[in-house]
Specification:
The protein is α/β, with parallel strands linked by helices. It has a single domain, classed as Rossmann fold (3-Layer(aba) Sandwich). Helix content is 32%, strand content 16%. It contains 8 helices and 10 strands. The longest helix has 18 residues. It binds 2-amino-2-deoxy-6-O-phosphono-alpha-D-glucopyranose.
Length: 259
């Protein structure tokens, strides 16, 4: 794992957007794992404004609320359409979001896993982190080997996400269909982005704490190719910060990304 701290949220977002654009340029038919949440909005804004072509890409989103139709303004399908899919040249049929409105959720989850497998697997998975330590909607006690399935959301997550539901926590669905931790770990590369002081404590636990199903994001420590990109505010509780900065300053891989 590499942990990179950038001076501001804007610098952190710029770096992640550049990394993703470079991955797509290097492999125009890349299979992208996409994430939602406020942090990601700025990534999609940058990608949509860049010259990178998504024409041959396929995408799989991490999760979707259960009970919301794709056209519901609060659904993640709608979020993706608004922030990215409608703004780039990706082929709609090649974009996938778990079907939270399916009558048979188990079947929908199995189909999602199959589709990922048939696509050849995810090349690069973008991740945010919830204040409850989740990646996707893998709430505490999610097995590190879990696959796509339905999951009940914690009060912390529902409160955190209420802002996307007109600030009304009662409007936030209670369950979601999410890729499992095991599904996420199967991606060839993980890039986790976190900004702001509200994420400082959970980032420190995920990166430096024990690997535990209580903090599903800690499972990224098991991944052989994982980058965590944070701003100063999200980095304040990292104990190994000096070393992480040293690596970023000296590893040849990062040379063209330092400025
Ligand atoms: C939701 C998503 C997560 C995401 C989190 C972060 O809960 N299911 O995948 O990591 O939001 O949200 P934000 O970027 O708004 O802090």
């Amino acid at each position: 794992m590499e942990v990179i701290t950038r001076p501001s949220a804007k610098h952190a977002v710029d770096l992640v957007a550049r990394l993703l654009a470079d991955r797509i340029r290097a492999k125009p038919d890349a299979v992208l794992g996409l994430a939602t949440g406020r942090t990601m909005e700025r990534i999609y804004e940058q990608l949509a404004g860049s010259d990178v072509s998504f024409k041959r890409c396929r995408s799989f989103n991490l999760d979707e609320y259960i009970g919301l139709l794709p056209e519901d303004v609060h659904s993640y399908r709608h979020y993706m359409h608004t922030h990215l899919f409608s703004k780039v040249d990706i082929v709609a049929a090649n974009t996938h979001v778990p079907d939270g409105s399916a009558s048979n959720l188990k079947e929908a989850a199995e189909r999602y896993e199959r589709l990922i497998e048939e696509s050849g697997g995810i090349d690069v998975q973008l991740l945010g982190i919830g204040e409850a330590g989740h990646i996707g909607f893998n709430e505490p006690l999610s097995s590190i080997m879990s696959r796509t399935r339905d999951k009940s959301l914690t009060p912390t997550t529902r409160a955190q996400n209420a802002v996307m539901f007109d600030g009304d926590v009662d409007k936030v669905p209670k369950r979601a269909l999410t890729m499992g931790v095991g599904t996420i770990l199967d991606a060839r590369e993980l890039i986790l982005l976190a900004t702001g002081s509200a994420k400082a404590a959970i980032i420190a636990q995920a990166v430096e704490g024990p690997i535990t199903s209580m903090v599903s994001a800690s499972a990224i420590q098991l991944h052989p190719c994982c980058k965590v990109i944070v701003d100063e505010e999200a980095a304040t509780q990292l104990r190994g910060r000096d070393y992480y900065d040293f690596v970023f300053e000296h590893e040849p891989e990062w040379e063209c990304y330092r400025n």
